[in-house]
Amino acid sequence: MSSRDVVLDRVRRALADVPRDERPDQAAVPRDYHRTHATRTPAQTAGLLAENLADYRALVHRTDAAGLAATLAGLLRARGARSVVVPDGVPAAWLPDDVERVADAADATPVALDAVDSVVTGCAVAIAETGTLVLDAGPDQGRRRITLVPDHHICVVRVPEQVVESVPQALERLDPARPLTWISGPSATSDIELDRVEGVHGPRTLEVVLVEEA
Question: Segment Disordered: which positions (predicted)?
């Protein structure tokens, strides 16, 4: 018996008691799994997010709304960034005047984006238990490619508004019809010898600014 036959036989046995005319949406699926794995305060959830982001080698910074512009200016200055891709929905006050602001244009080529030093975006939601940022192409996030081509990505997360504890909680906030980009640390891969290479499928450096709201 081939592997294909083994798999098909298991499928047939699993479906033996299912009526042939039953559709998937007619069968209730139990969803009694845990939505979170602990009881946390908003501050503890934000702390867990910061910890897990750092475990993924993201650089985490914390500030408040009043200090956001100065924090972003300092990060761009430390990077030596002279040009920044900025989605339309990013407030002008976020960025300093001494950097070139590159629009998120539909006709921007990969070569043009690769020449830009940094990109600054917001996010749709951040997941504490997995250290994951999710972008959904909202006004402050822009097209997916602007966060994949430039080598340096700064992502601004509003705390606690945009922070959830778990993936199930995040999914409740997200529209599956939108282009979702899930980011867990800077882009990286490893070969069979486990030699890590960063910046393969996205930015080599990911910086996350957690903005504490009053």
Answer: 17-42
- Tell me the pTM: 0.84
Q: What are the structural domains, with CATH classification, of the chain? A: 43-212 (3.40.50.10420)
**Residues recorded for the chain:** 214
Q: Which two tokens stand for residue 172?
A: 């409740």
In degrees and rounded to multiples of 5, residue 173 shows phi and psi of: -90, -15
> What tens digit of pLDDT does each residue of 174-211 get?
999 999 999 998 877 766 777 777 766 779 999 999 99
Residues in Cβ contact with 210 at an 8 Å cutoff, skipping those fewer than 6 apart? 46, 49, 50, 60, 61, 62, 63, 157, 159
Write out pLDDT tens, residues 93-129.
999 999 999 999 999 999 999 999 999 999 999 999 9
